[in-house]
Amino acid sequence: MNGQYCRDLLSDQLLPAIRHTAGDVYTFQQDSAPAHGAREIIGLLQRETPEFITPDLRPPNSPDLNPVDYRMWGVLQKRVHRKSVKNVDELKRRLTEAWLGIQQSVTDQAIDQWRIRLNTCVKAKGKDFEHKL
User: Fold this and answer.
1) What is the pLDDT of residues 119-129, one digit of tens each?
2) Are 91 and 26 in a shared domain?
3) Residues 118, 65: contact at Cβ < 8 Å?
4) Which of 62, 7, 13, 58 is nearest to 36 (CA)?
5) What is the SS3 assignment for 43-92?
6) Structural domains in the chain (count)
7) What is the rounded CA–CA span in Å between residue 113 and residue 65?
8) 98 shares its domain with 50
9) What are the tens digits of pLDDT across the range 19-46?
């Protein structure tokens, strides 16, 4: 993924979908993938989102603070790989079905855990903290 692809994905798909779901009440956070740190991406997110946690405000290698990384991918993986996947089309279908089947309470619990994780990360001075939860 490069900066242009990331920008287009954010502008054309992700941010409109978030606005449709959350309105103007959400916080946007992303990981430290190189494309995510491009100046144009940071500027876009600062202009277009109500709250944006910039890359310099989060530990550089901490997926432990991203609800998608610490909870949602695991839920998807468990649901998608109940049986072996035969091809890419089947994988896409299963991922879509699994994502749409996640109950809002699972997402809410992952988000609720974020503040606890953030406080634990601060106490660990940005170092690994999973074992302290």
Assistant:
1) 898 888 878 88
2) no
3) yes
4) 7
5) HHHHHHCCEEECHHHCCCCCHHHCHHHHHHHHHHHHHHCCCCCCCHHHHH
6) 2
7) 9
8) no
9) 998 999 888 888 777 878 888 999 999 9
